[in-house]
Structure formats: C-alpha cells, structure tokens
C-alpha cells in the first residue's frame, strides 16, 4: 500500500465492495441490493459472466463446454432457466442466462468493468481499504468500504504439476485453461494428464480430433452417467436427500453400482472413497471412447525425457501435445492469505461456514466450494446469509459476533475437511445447504427482548 500512501482514500461509507462479476459476483450484488446495501462491483475484464464468457481473456473455457450438472440443480432459486432448454445447457446458454439475470435485476449499473482490485486490507472500524487498478494504465484509486465480498471463484490460478524433465520436453505443453480451440488437437498425438471433469472432457475432444489420445490418471474416479432411470443423474440422486444420512449413502451406492460395474469393465476403476466425497466425473462419451480404443488410459506419469513421456509402469509414449488438466489452486491474490485463515506457505482459505473470514468481521467469500451439484443455488443462499449478517452487524454488533462464534462451533463447515488438497473445497451439498438454512433462520429471528 505504500505506493498509494500519498492519495486520500475515497470513503464509500457502509457500501459493500464485491470483487468479480461472474455468476457468484452477480448473485452477491443482487442479494446485497435486495437487503438495502449500496454496492460497487469490480470486474477486471470488460464483460460480465466470468469464466462463462469466452470474451473474457482469463476464461478457462475449453471447446464444446457444457454443464456437468443439470439445469434444475444449477439454476438460481429465484431465476429459473427456460423450460425449453436442454437438461445440460451449453456455455453459450449459461452466458445468456447470466446476462438475462443481470438485466432482470438491473445489476450492471453497479459493476465497474475493466477494474481490478489489486490489494485490500482492513482499516479502523472493521472497514476495508481497496486499491482499484483500472484498465489502460489509468491511475489507481483507493476507496474505503464497510465490507468486502470476494466472488472471484477458484478457476483462475492453474495448478501446474512438477515432473522430472518437464521443462526440457521437446513437445508442446498446455494447461487446460489455454486450450481454447479444438483445432489445436487436430492431427496431434495428445497426452491428457488429469482425471477430473476437464481432463475427461478434453480427452473426449482429442478422441475425435487428434491422431491419438492417451489419458493419464493417477487414481480411480467416480464416473457418474448424466442420466439415471431416465432423469438427470444429479436430480435423481438429490431426491434421496430427505432420507437419513446413512440410508442416503446406502441408496446412493446401490444406485451407482451399475455405472460403477460398467466403468470397471472398461478398466476405469472406482476410487477408495465414496461418490459424495469428491466431485464425480460426468461425461457419457468417455467410457465409449475407452471402450472403442480411441482413448487409451495410462497410470501416473513418471518423467519427461526429450520427446518422450514415461509412465510409472515403465511404458513410454511420444506425444506432440501434452494437456495438463490438473485443476486450479484456490488462491485469492488481492488479499493476504492470513485474512482468510491461510498462511504464506499454505494459502488455501479456511473460512467459517465456508464463507466468513476468521480474522476480519466484514470480509466474506462467496462460491469457494465444490458441492458436486450446481454451485449457483449455494452461492444464492451464501450471499443471502452474508447480507443478513452484515445487516445484523450494523444493528446489533454483539449479537452478530455471538452468532459468528456459534457458526464456527456448530456448522461443521468452518474449516478444511479434507487433508487431500485436491478435495479441500468439497462439501456435501445437502448437508451444507441445510447448514446455510439454519444460519439464515438464526439471522432472521427477532432478537430477544
């Protein structure tokens, strides 16, 4: 902040700063406005939609992206998707949906496009000072806000693995976020590394566009078909949510026994954990491509050697193109990790109820979860809870602090649940939504007199 110390910060009073105008940011703006807050939303790109907008230069969309969660499990509770849309909308339709959402609720008038928050820090009175870096080299501005909600998601900082010899590999190496066009696959011998949804989707694209495709997967993955019993699979499984937890898990495992058996017959082993402990892979084409040989599965990569890649089992291949579908790191660059419960060495946030900063009363994060179903309903209720808590904090600070301590003690979602860093953001969607419901009920109760 020293380089801006000569500039007086413009005070926005009790207005709330929202960072990001993707889906989570737009939902945050809408719910804050409905709860009476002034809001300034800052978006570093010149368009709304976040990762769903291909005009966003930072978008990680790859070719032919579609939702892996169904329409009914993805739509925002107070803004349904059109009934005539497919069960699994495309990225283009998702952008259309978010654009319609912003227009319907008049959100764009609260968004500053081409404006990046380069730094934020707490100041006196539980407020925040932010540094806004506009596009085109304009002078940075400093502003003060009553609260900040970070809604940037976690698909912006690629997780780049380290392999012996990778830096000297003679072929081309891309992270999945750099693969914008299927034409880059055509005629190439492609190695895709990573067994999540991105890796599976890109392997399927390579199966029909590349000269050959090898898919390197370190461990087993749950492969969930998009349909079960004629219904979207996530909807079919969601109908089990009213059952007791142990019964729900039993019924889920029994429901998935057939798909699991089919995957294992294709040589795609299931992992050692249950289907609810990690986001499953959803791509109906993958097992077909494995079955017809257009995708060849391999285990973990051991090393790169010139033009060649060696696997842990001793086999080698010579790919032209390596795609690292190895996910993203949950980094939030504009804020010190300590403010979000992390450290310099382990910056991943550790948040009360997966949204509240443990260090700053007026700092929250929206959408930093992996629920295995559509995240937008969760963000809707998260930001509703955040807005209600900020209201109570103004009207009854003592009650607000007491509530925050209660959330930390009782929610069950106050910190990282999985030691495995690949699963640190995973939540059980039904349990977490129930937790959010209890939080909102508590916040909307009249204080005792």
Automatic annotation (TrEMBL):
Family annotation (InterPro entries): FAD/NAD-bd_sf (IPR036188), Flavin_mOase (IPR000960), Flavin_mOase-like (IPR020946), FMO-like (IPR050346)
GO terms assigned for molecular function: flavin adenine dinucleotide binding; N,N-dimethylaniline monooxygenase activity; NADP binding
UniProt cross-references to Pfam families, sorted A to Z: FMO-like
Domain of life: Bacteria
Key words of the record: FAD, Flavoprotein, NADP, Oxidoreductase
Family, per entry: Belongs to the FAD-binding monooxygenase family.
Name of the protein in its database record: NAD(P)-binding domain-containing protein
């Amino acid at each position: 902040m020293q380089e801006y110390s000569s500039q007086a910060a413009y005070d926005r009073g009790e207005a709330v700063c929202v960072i990001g105008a993707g889906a989570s940011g737009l939902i945050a703006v809408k719910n804050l406005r409905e709860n009476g807050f002034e809001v300034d939303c800052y978006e570093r790109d010149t368009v709304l939609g976040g990762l769903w907008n291909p005009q966003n230069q930072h978008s990680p969309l790859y070719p032919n992206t579609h939702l892996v969660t169904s329409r009914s499990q993805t739509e925002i509770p107070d803004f349904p998707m059109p009934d005539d849309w497919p069960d699994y909308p495309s990225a283009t339709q998702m952008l259309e949906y978010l654009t319609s959402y912003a227009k319907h609720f008049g959100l764009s008038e609260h968004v500053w496009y081409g404006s990046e928050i380069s730094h934020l820090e707490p100041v006196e009175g539980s407020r925040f000072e932010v540094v806004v870096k506009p596009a085109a080299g304009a002078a940075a501005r400093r502003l003060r806000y009553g609260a900040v909600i970070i809604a940037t998601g976690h698909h912006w900082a690629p997780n780049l693995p380290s392999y012996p010899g990778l830096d000297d590999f003679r072929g081309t190496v891309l992270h999945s976020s750099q693969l914008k066009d299927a034409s880059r696959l055509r005629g190439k011998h492609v190695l895709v590394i990573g067994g999540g949804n991105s890796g599976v989707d890109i392997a399927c694209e390579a199966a029909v566009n590349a000269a050959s495709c090898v898919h390197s997967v370190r461990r087993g993955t749950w492969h969930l078909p998009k349909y079960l019993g004629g219904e979207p699979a996530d909807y079919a499984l969601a109908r089990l949510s009213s059952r007791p937890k142990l019964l729900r898990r039993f019924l889920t495992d029994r429901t998935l026994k057939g798909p699991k058996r089919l995957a294992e017959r294709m040589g795609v082993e299931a992992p050692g954990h249950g289907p609810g402990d990690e986001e499953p892979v959803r791509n109906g084409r993958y097992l077909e491509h494995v079955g017809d040989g257009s995708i060849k599965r391999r285990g973990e990569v051991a090393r790169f050697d010139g033009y060649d890649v060696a696997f842990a089992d001793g086999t080698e291949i010579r790919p032209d193109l390596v795609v690292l579908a190895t996910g993203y790191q949950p980094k939030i660059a504009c804020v010190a990790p300590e403010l979000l419960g992390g450290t310099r060495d382990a910056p991943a946030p550790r948040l009360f109820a997966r949204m509240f900063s443990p260090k700053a009363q007026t700092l929250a994060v929206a959408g930093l979860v992996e629920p295995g179903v559509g995240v937008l309903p969760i963000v809707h209720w998260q930001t509703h809870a955040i807005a209600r808590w900020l209201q109570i904090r103004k009207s009854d600070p003592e009650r607000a602090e007491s509530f925050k301590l209660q959330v930390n003690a009782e929610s069950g979602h106050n910190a990282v649940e999985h030691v495995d860093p690949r699963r640190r953001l995973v939540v059980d969607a039904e349990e977490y939504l129930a937790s959010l419901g209890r939080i909102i009920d508590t916040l909307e109760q009249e204080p005792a007199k």
